[in-house]
Write a structure and sequence with these properties.
By secondary structure, the protein is α/β, with parallel strands linked by helices. It has helices spanning 3-10, 12-22, 64-75, 106-122, 135-143, 174-185, 206-213, 217-225, 243-253, 272-283; strands at 24-29, 36-42, 50-54, 79-84, 128-133, 152-158, 192-196, 199-204, 230-236, 257-260. It folds into 2 domains: 3-162 and 217-283, Alpha/Beta hydrolase fold, catalytic domain (Rossmann fold, 3-Layer(aba) Sandwich); 165-214, no CATH class.
Length: 285
């Protein structure tokens, strides 16, 4: 076992105590004027970047992959901000079920991440690193396709995925997309039982559904390829949620791709420390 692994194992319990004691809950009034979003914030070394961690599809900041990353980064004296994206629900603290009524779009997610970046800038941070996991990485990939704040210095995309056709785990279909397009032509904002990602039933509007569906594999690859900032991708070779075809496309078409052999979508069990080591290598100066 190398020194990195020993360090993480020996400090695991200490990390839990430190993060619990030093963590502060930040409330952010969103631009819609209706909802409040919250994040856990731990202030680290003043000379280190602020890391903003973005969770996956319908989850919260309490998701295990995010909390493990946060604890490790706090141990390395980074400042860490872990928001729970509101997804249109004020003060959301629980993951959303597939069958819930979904009032959010991927563009809402991107806008909310940018609002957290703006909050960080208001606290004096000029060096920010965005790290997204799974659908969080997908949202960040759309963020970097637009105008990016100069304070964002690096991006790390873990288990990067996409929406639309072609994924092993993804229930959206071309028929649903055609239905949504027809609804938009008719200017309909009625709810419909769409399907999205791992949700076989996903009640939402046509515009919200298409915002996700249209952020396809090609769009993601193009966004990462043309990123104006340093962007890194970390994938597991045994990630059955995104499949080997997508993994190979990332490896063949993108630079700065790190493949962890045998890891799944969540980098749990024996691959947890390999993920932490890869992240820390990418974000170090």
């Amino acid at each position: 076992m190398n020194l990195f692994f020993k360090k993480k194992l020996l400090t695991c319990f200490f990390l839990f105590l430190v993060s619990t004691v030093n963590a502060e809950i930040i409330s952010l009034e969103l631009n819609d004027g209706k909802n409040i979003a919250k994040a856990e914030y731990v202030k680290g070394n003043s000379s280190s970047p602020l890391i903003i961690l973005i969770h996956g599809f319908l989850q919260t900041r309490e998701f295990s992959t995010i909390t493990r990353l946060a604890e490790s980064l706090v141990d390395d004296e980074y400042s860490v901000l872990s928001p729970t994206l509101s997804l249109g629900i004020s003060d959301r603290v629980q993951s959303l079920s597939c069958e819930a009524i979904h009032v959010h779009s991927i563009d809402d997610e991107v806008d909310e991440i940018n609002q957290w970046v703006a909050w960080a800038e208001s606290q004096g941070y000029e060096n920010i690193i965005l790290i997204g996991h799974s659908a969080g990485a997908t949202a960040v990939s759309k963020l970097i396709s637009k105008t990016v704040s100069q304070s964002i210095q690096k991006v790390v995309l873990i288990s990067l995925s996409y929406y639309g056709l072609g994924r092993p785990v993804g229930f959206e279909t071309a028929d649903l997309a055609n239905y949504a397009k027809k609804a938009l032509e008719d200017e309909s904002q009625k709810l419909h039982k769409y399907a999205l990602d791992y949700c076989e039933v996903f009640p939402t509007t046509a515009s919200n559904f298409l915002s996700y569906y249209n952020w396809s594999a090609d769009q993601v690859i193009n966004a990462v390829s043309n990123s104006p900032i340093e962007t890194y991708v970390i994938l597991g070779s045994s990630d059955k949620r995104i499949g080997s075809t997508w993994v190979n496309r990332n490896v063949n078409e993108l630079t700065n791709v790190h493949l962890i052999e045998g890891a799944n979508h969540f980098f749990d069990k024996v691959h947890e420390f390999a993920l932490l080591e890869a992240v820390e290598n990418f974000i170090s100066p």
